TrEMBL record, chains A, B:
SUPFAM superfamilies assigned to the protein according to its UniProt record, in alphabetical order: P-loop containing nucleoside triphosphate hydrolases
InterPro entries: DgcN-like, DgcN-like_C, DgcN-like_N, P-loop_NTPase
Name assigned to this protein: DUF1611 domain-containing protein
PANTHER family: DUF1611 DOMAIN-CONTAINING PROTEIN (PTHR40690:SF1), GLL3100 PROTEIN (PTHR40690)
Boundaries of every D-glutamate N-acetyltransferase-like C-terminal domain copy: 139-335
Domain D-glutamate N-acetyltransferase-like N-terminal: 54-132
Length: 340, 340
């Protein structure tokens, strides 16, 4: 039972379920929630053998519910992305304690034996965040109030989510009314709301994007997580529909300076940054003629400090807007650029 | 029960069901089939009061089946797009005679009382052409053999389907091995195969397009029906994914010279033809670096002969490729341009 209208809205705070996981790479969702939404995580629960430890209070589902938790979030990815049978005991205990279950795994929660029945009895929701709401509207193209910055990129998986999260955090730190807007599963768990746009029916991509960043106060800023790339041979349709529906005032162009080709697609070279900028601005201006480039986000995680600094300076000279790495740069100059 | 893999394939020839329709506008599907696929239509069947007459032999479903028909195609659109209850008798008679039912209406055929059971008994299929196959692959981006021409446009609903149909017919008339490839419901019925790309999950748009125009002989040409427009605030994602997956060698840019704005979207002006050409070429070259503009299709249906001719000549001077109206121009020059 997902929300039936517009974007999903999750019930916070969370109890993080870490299973019997021992490999931190399989716990990326949990670490992401800890890094970006710890104020909404009131505890962790593990199964025997589990060694992942976020340092949160250890709680059984009933204890977490008593302490105010409203959802158990599956924070680890089991082998094959399927929910193991032996997890059903703790998941059923959670819904019996009144907690929603929130999952980004491929197995639908309703397929866990007994879980749907237990949820029906307690009124808890089973929320598969990959699954979009049922009755999304088509886009209207009507301008919405408030301001929006869209993350766009030269490829998938180069930091668009982190750029949006870091900018939202930096802007709020300056007292600016700003929200991260999620368009993928991990982002939705962090934000507590959103739509997995890549799972939407094609006719409704831009309509979903309109729901993700709704009308807001004139001084409010949405930082919209991007998906894919206009230069990607498989996923560009998602990228373009999301950009159109976002009606972006500002674009942040996200890039990895060490990447030369679409990741896993060696026959597809990445565009130059000026080519990417020009195309994204042209497309953004279809739904918002005032769209402008406000910054460039570089993923320099594989570079030493000196190389990273050199890359940031080079890009800044080339494009004439602040360049930053969302995980290592100060963000005051790009925030100033956003605010115009 | 739609096909479970890749594009839908319909069973021909057809018996056209015209219901009790009296309004030719509500029989557009039937007329489209008559105009473009009459060799696959062996009869028509009507209900009392119906006045639409294609001049085909009048046949009850059992007679049509005996004469070789393999599907009954619903060729009219009832009010609200829903299948009226009183149609169920003839639809059930058709599946009992072994005919598949092919529908482009919103009501799923399985919702017609008794129809699914009758189909299960006879082995007939209920094919909702709006519904894509269940297990589409993601795009691979791998170059396919054979040649492809994609119809792209400045807007929706300005003749992209007719351009592809007319070009396929003209090329076959010259002995060229060519196929119309359908991406929308009426086109699928005409071609007897295809996928409604706007109904596909967003992540699979380009993958669906790859299935629609599969590997073919080196001298084979696919004429791919286009959808939407890169300049459309709601549907551009479909357009771009379809273009990328089509790996077009040639583009035909489709336009209506009298249209100044996106139809039904008065706040969205249409692009100039050179702007549209440049954007579509840039995007087509992501998956096929050799893509080139081969022609411009103008919908001049609302213009007199002299104005139409003037518009065609003006566009031809502006873009330097043959301009044609698929329903009133000779097509030899554009076919020559396609063949390079």
């Amino acid at each position: 039972m997902t929300a039936s209208l517009d974007r999903l809205v999750l019930n916070m705070p969370y109890l993080l379920f870490l299973g019997e996981e021992t490999n931190p790479i399989k716990a990326k969702t949990a670490y992401g929630l800890y890094d970006w939404s710890v104020e909404n995580c009131i505890g962790q629960t593990r199964l025997p053998g589990g060694t992942i430890d976020l340092g949160l209070a250890e709680m059984a589902p009933a204890e977490a519910a008593a302490a105010g938790a409203r959802s158990l979030v599956i924070g680890v990815t089991p082998v094959g992305g399927r929910i193991p049978e032996h997890w059903s005991r703790v998941l059923i205990a959670a819904v019996e304690a009144g907690l929603d279950i929130v999952s980004g795994l491929h197995t639908p929660l309703e397929s866990v034996p007994g879980l749907a029945q237990a949820a029906a009895r307690s009124g808890a929701r089973l929320v598969d965040v990959r699954r979009p709401p049922d009755n999304l509207p088509r886009a209207t193209g009507k301008r919405r109030s408030g301001k929006r910055v869209a993350m766009v990129g030269t490829d998938c998986a180069l930091g668009k989510k982190y750029a949006a999260l870091a900018l939202a955090r930096a802007m709020r730190g300056q007292g600016i009314d700003a929200d991260f807007r999620a368009t993928g599963q991990t982002g939705i768990m962090i934000a507590g709301a959103g739509i997995a746009v890549d799972a939407v029916i094609a006719d409704f991509i831009a309509g979903a994007a309109e729901c993700i960043s709704p009308d807001a106060d004139p001084d409010h800023w949405d930082l919209v997580e991007g998906q894919g790339s206009m230069f990607h041979p498989a996923y560009a349709g998602v990228t373009l529909g999301l950009l159109h529906g976002s009606q972006a005032d500002g674009l942040v162009l996200c890039h990895d300076p060490l990447r030369t080709h679409v990741v896993s697609w060696p026959d597809y070279p990445l565009p130059s940054l000026p080519v990417a900028r020009d195309l994204y601005l042209q497309m953004a201006r279809i739904t918002n003629p005032a769209a402008r480039l406000v910054g460039v986000s570089l993923n320099t995680s594989a570079m030493d400090e000196a190389s990273a600094q050199e890359a940031l300076e080079r890009v800044e000279r080339e494009l004439g807007v602040p360049a930053f790495d969302p995980l290592r740069s100060p963000l005051d100059r790009v925030v100033a650029s956003i605010m115009g």
